[in-house]
Write a structure and sequence with these properties.
Layout: E1 2-8, H1 12-23, E2 31-35, E3 40-46, H2 54-65, E4 69-71
Antiparallel strand pairs: 1-3, 1-4, 2-3
Length: 72
């Protein structure tokens, strides 16, 4: 199952820091895309649909570290 999460950051610079951390992220293979003039980051990854989604939890923690929040 393909999962998609979108995060918003206070600036494009902070969003790029988040992206740079994901380039070498050991938790899961993710695909990213900048949106909304560079303030939003869309993250796609594969989830098997069973059990707890640890990738989502780790992404939320990493985004919070950069003062990012999930948006719809």
């Amino acid at each position: 199952m393909n999962s998609e999460i979108r995060y918003r950051f206070q600036s494009g610079q902070i969003a790029n820091r988040f992206l740079n951390e994901l380039k070498h992220w050991p938790v899961a293979r993710v695909k990213t895309k900048l949106l909304n003039g560079g303030f939003d980051v869309k993250v796609n990854y594969q989830f098997d649909g069973t059990g707890f989604d640890y990738t989502c939890a780790e992404l939320d923690e990493l985004a919070a570290k950069h003062a990012g929040e999930e948006v719809n």
